[in-house]
Write a structure and sequence with these properties.
Blueprint: E1 17-21, E2 33-35, E3 38-48, E4 51-61, E5 69-77, E6 83-91, E7 95-98, E8 100-103, H1 104-116, E9 121-126, E10 133-141, E11 146-156, E12 158-160, E13 165-170, E14 184-185, E15 198-205, E16 212-216, E17 223-226, E18 242-249, E19 258-264, E20 271-276, E21 284-290, E22 302-308, H2 316-331, E23 337-343, E24 347-349, E25 355-356, H3 359-370, H4 382-390, E26 398-404, H5 411-424, E27 429-436, H6 442-451, E28 456-459, H7 466-476, E29 485-490, E30 503-505, E31 514-515, E32 562-563, E33 568-571, E34 584-590, E35 601-610, E36 613-623, H8 630-644, H9 661-664, H10 669-684, E37 691-696, H11 706-719, H12 722-729, H13 739-744
Parallel strand pairs: 2-14, 3-15, 20-36, 22-23, 22-26, 26-27, 27-28
Antiparallel strand pairs: 1-2, 1-5, 3-4, 4-11, 5-10, 6-7, 6-11, 8-37, 9-10, 9-37, 12-13, 13-19, 15-18, 16-19, 17-18, 20-21, 21-34, 23-24, 23-25, 29-30, 29-35, 31-32, 33-34, 35-36
Helix pairs in contact: 2-3, 2-7, 4-5, 5-6, 8-10, 10-12, 11-12
Domain VIT: 22-155
Organism: Colletotrichum liriopes
Protein name: von Willebrand factor A domain-containing protein 5A
């Protein structure tokens, strides 16, 4: 199977901007793109601990004063794993359309219907071939109109092992260079004032007990203010828990990814925070950040380095790859086994099978690295990874390091292959990824690391990396622990039951989650149908049956078996290996119908076993006093991401006869997975592969303000059953979501 790189660069066709297809080329698909000139661009991000909320605002103009545009498209790439939670489009500063999440096909019909009626409408979707690229379609844009697009998204911040801090990234492609547009950039009208340049502001906060040591950027020169944020008043009291970084460019373009590193004290303790949903009664979500500190002896496994030598790695990328690989090789423990695989259009191994690491084999490997060049053609990444798995010494654990710029397509099949090999090895294989250079595909390197039970790191061109590389290797040499589990411990102050009954254990493969297709209630034998009916007319044309729809899109799954979601849904469902110098976040969605919904969670208990003995950690839970949705949305997106990548709780459910759902219903199982992702997307208003944001121009004559509608919807949600809540949630305006979380979490003891 071939996974080819885009010769012009992976993101060449996926840059941020509004464009339409030239109508003069109607018979050509696709026609040339005409990009609307940007008037202003701004980014504001707020970092709290290891989470971020980012608002991206861009304003464009239709340069024609007499021609309306029937349909505009807006592409924007985002860092892997983010949750898009709000989408608004403003026309001429007076017409605002706000997005809500619907099942993807339903959202498309809603959009098409609105456009057909002449309404301004928007549709935000995830591209099927790249999970970190979203696209928005805006219909019926008037002549000369100014269009402001605002996207709001949440994300977990990566741990940067080089500085032992958090890493925040804004992709280059949100502000593309002039010559990188895959089409024509139209001229700005002379009668429209513009604000040249781009402004990026990043505000950072750490909780009490921590102090920001520094906020820095390895990619751009920034202005830094310690003690305050951009939103504080001038007379506010300064605090070392606050800092702000600003990038202001005279041109509206980024020459490479914008990276911020936040280094603070006392951020290495495991924490757990509980949030209560504002509109779904008894619905709660828990976020646990796990930061292990092991006292266990390191192992001497088999280590294989898979190195990208395709044409896209030329220049500084290849130099950085070689430097990283040399650090890896010099840091291996004596007695381990190792090999090097080079790949591009094809692949080759330094040794037929991995060899023992000693002075002689190290010298051979170092001489081999000196010959590296970006001369292996295109990028075919599937076969070298699979061959590395197949060549392993089955009596040793295998640690694989992939060094690449990530410019490939076909991610889903690649993730599926890695998932299968990891599962077959029963956890003996782990895959780590190091993204090299600017414009790295974070969806690829993050997705492969998740599928491979490892973790990823990224280095931009000429960025320091020795500390990062050594810490990655130290993580890979830790013993394999594959049975981590979580339990929620509740306070028994008001309980008459024994303390051991006050634990809520995460459901896994329980047959109680599964319910077969409902049979006919009457159970009466049906009247036989005649095999020769003279009234039957074989020449009558077949009429297409119009599917019934309830407006949510979930009715399209009525033909598949019912599977109840766990009362405590964990994401990721299987806790991945935990590594020193790498923070792992695990979420729990606590459903309203769980048995202990009226009790107060007290602590989270993490357990595991290793060859060196049992492991256990108890983490106290901090309860946020005000209700919010941020943790719920991060949890839902993590759960949906797993389903999109072929993992998650539904893959572990078994029927009463012991068969997995995938084995019992091979034809319907994909629909079962999709239905669960849609349920989570609609209920918690997060977009993804099977859910889209749709926005339609509101009727100005509609009664009631937005605040009135919010209040009415919240009131309805309080009286709805858990199964009905998603219908109410579908109607809520997303941009009012989760604001209070950010005011509360800064006071938590992380």
């Amino acid at each position: 199977m071939v996974f080819g790189a885009n010769p012009g660069g992976r993101h060449h066709m996926h840059i941020c901007g509004l464009y339409y297809l030239d109508p003069a080329y109607q018979n050509r698909f696709p026609g040339p793109r005409k990009y609307l000139p940007p008037l202003s661009q701004s980014v504001h991000a707020r970092i709290i601990a290891s989470t971020s909320r980012t608002t991206l605002t861009q304003t464009f103009v239709n340069p024609s004063s007499d021609t309306a545009i029937p349909e505009l498209r807006y592409n924007f790439p985002l860092y892997d794993g983010v949750s898009v939670v709000a989408f608004t489009c403003t026309i001429n500063n007076d017409r605002v359309i706000r997005g809500v999440v619907q099942e993807k096909n339903t959202a498309r019909r809603t959009y098409d219907d609105a456009v057909a009626k002449g309404q301004t409408a928007g549709l935000l979707e995830q591209l099927p071939d790249a999970s970190d690229v979203f696209t928005t379609t805006v219909g019926n844009v008037p002549a000369g109109a100014q269009i402001a697009v605002k996207i709001e998204y949440l994300g977990e911040l990566k741990h940067d092992a080089e500085v032992d801090g958090t890493r925040f990234t804004i992709p280059t492609s949100i502000a593309p260079r002039f010559g990188s547009y895959p089409g024509t950039l139209l001229n700005k009208p002379t009668n429209v004032s513009t604000h040249e340049g781009i402004s990026i502001v990043v505000d950072a906060e750490v909780p009490s007990g921590s102090v920001i040591k520094s906020i820095q950027s390895p990619s751009h020169p920034i202005a830094v203010s310690v003690g305050s944020t951009s939103t504080m008043s001038a007379d506010a009291t300064p605090s070392l828990q606050l800092a702000s970084a600003t990038l202001s460019l005279g041109t509206a373009e980024l020459d490479n990814d914008f990276i911020i590193q936040v280094i603070a004290t006392n951020t290495s303790n495991p924490v757990a925070v509980l949030e209560t949903h504002p509109t779904i009664p008894h619905q709660q979500a828990l976020m646990a950040t796990l930061v292990p500190k092991f006292k266990m002896a390191t192992t001497k496994p088999e280590v294989v380095f898979i190195c990208d030598r395709s044409g896209s790695m030329e220049g500084n990328r290849m130099s950085d790859l070689k430097n990283a690989l040399k650090v890896f090789l010099k840091s291996l423990p004596v007695g381990a086994m190792f090999n090097i695989c080079s790949f591009g259009s094809g692949h080759s191994f330094l040794f037929d099978k991995s060899v023992t690491y000693d002075q002689n084999t190290l010298e051979t490997a170092m001489k081999h690295v000196e010959t590296f060049d970006a001369n292996f053609g295109g990028t075919q990444i599937h076969d070298p990874i699979e061959q590395t798995f197949k060549r392993r010494h089955i009596d040793l654990d295998l640690e694989v390091f992939l060094l690449t710029d990530g410019e490939v397509w076909g991610e889903e099949n690649l993730f599926s292959m890695v998932n299968n090999h990891i599962r077959k090895s029963k956890g003996a294989i782990r895959l780590f990824t190091l993204g090299v250079g600017q414009d790295v595909s974070h969806s690829l390197i993050e997705g492969l690391a998740r599928a491979g039970n490892g973790f990823s790191q990224a280095v931009s061109e000429n960025e320091k990396m020795s500390g990062k590389v050594v810490r990655m290797l130290k993580g890979a040499l830790t013993p394999h622990v594959n049975d981590y589990s979580l339990e929620v411990k509740y306070s028994d102050a008001e309980s008459e039951t024994e303390p051991e009954d006050e634990f809520e254990i995460i459901e896994s493969d329980s047959a109680t989650l599964y319910k077969p297709l409902t049979q006919d209630a009457s159970h009466q034998p049906k009247k036989p149908i005649s095999l020769f009916d003279t009234s039957a007319d074989e020449d009558v044309e077949m009429e297409g049956e119009q599917p019934h729809t309830d407006g949510t899109g979930t009715d399209r799954y009525s033909h598949v078996p019912v599977v109840k979601p766990p009362k405590v849904l964990q994401a990721p469902f299987q806790i991945p290996p935990l590594f020193p110098y790498s923070r792992t976040t695990v979420y729990l969605l606590l459903s309203p119908d769980r048995e202990l919904k009226n009790k107060t969670p007290e602590s989270l208990v993490l357990r595991g076993t290793s060859s060196q003995g049992p492991l256990e950690l108890q983490i106290p839970i901090t309860i946020l006093q005000e209700k919010a949705e941020t943790i719920h949305q991060l949890a839902a997106r993590k759960a949906v991401k797993e389903l999109e990548e072929g993992r998650g709780w539904i893959f572990h459910v078994k029927s009463k006869d012991g068969q997995s759902l995938k084995e019992k219903h091979p034809g319907r199982f994909p629909s079962m997975v999709e239905r669960e992702a849609v349920r989570l997307g609609i209920q918690f208003q997060v977009g993804g592969k099977w859910c889209s944001f749709v926005a339609v121009d509101n009727d100005p004559a509609s009664p009631g303000s937005k605040e009135d509608r919010q209040r009415d919807l919240a009131h309805v949600a309080e009286k709805a059953t858990p199964d009905q809540v998603f219908t109410v949630r579908r109607c809520q305006a997303v941009d009012a979501v989760g604001k209070s979380f950010w005011e509360q979490i800064k006071s938590c003891n992380w």
